[in-house]
């Protein structure tokens, strides 16, 4: 398993607002809404975190603004990052929840990137977690040796190349001398789980907390 920061939260205009006196901040936020832009689709662990945070965050901001969650999946959370950087106003009313690895896309000059990573103001990450790679138990791959000898390698789902869901299978592939075909472009964990159930893919990587703590993977574990 691989331990990482599962995602990062950044705030547009946070540096500016952090210097505003308490009374002025309370007046600014009162009656307003703060939007958390999630770079994943509804139903995944990141979406769950955003909605959990949204229940309590407003109580800890002067003026107690309403917290709204907006899903904007695509390109491994690059679409959400582009939105925060280019469209959301830098006024402290927009939070982004994205994959912290997409800075690599900027370094590699990916054409989809429309942000400058160092210019984001970072808030933090709610947890450090372990990643687990899992595969359908009713498929032809029961052991690593089965994968090594297979005429057709297993297909693993992931959001994008800069996500842990891509990096962990590739580490296993390289470290154990296996072949795994990656299928990219999914919007979130819920979509990838559905793809496994439909037989589109055989495996994917995800957080241990989501794997053992939510459906459908809890039922998969129970049923073997």
Largest sheet: 5 strands, mixed
Radius of gyration of CA atoms, rounded to a whole number: 19 Å
Our count of helices gives 10
- Overall number of structural domains: 2
Please identify the structural class as seen in this structure.
alpha/beta
Low-pLDDT regions: 1-7, 12-17
State the main characteristics.
5-stranded mixed β-sheet; elongated; disordered N terminus; alpha/beta
Account of the 3D structure:
The chain folds into 2 domains: 2-127, no CATH class; 129-223, D-Maltodextrin-Binding Protein, domain 2 (3-Layer(aba) Sandwich), CATH 3.40.190. It is elongated and about 65 Å long. Mean pLDDT is 86; it is low at 1-7 and 12-17. The longest helix is centred in the N-terminal third of the chain and has 13 residues, at 45-57. Helices cover 36% and strands 21% of the residues. The protein has helices at residues 14-17, 22-29, 45-57, 78-86, 103-107, 144-149, 164-176, 189-198, 208-213, 217-223; strands at residues 2-5, 8-11, 33-38, 66-71, 94-98, 121-124, 128-135, 155-157, 181-183, 203-207. By secondary structure, the protein is an alpha/beta fold. A 5-stranded mixed β-sheet has the order 1-7-10-8-9, with helices on both faces. It has a 5-stranded mixed β-sheet with strand order 4-3-5-2-6, with helices on both faces.
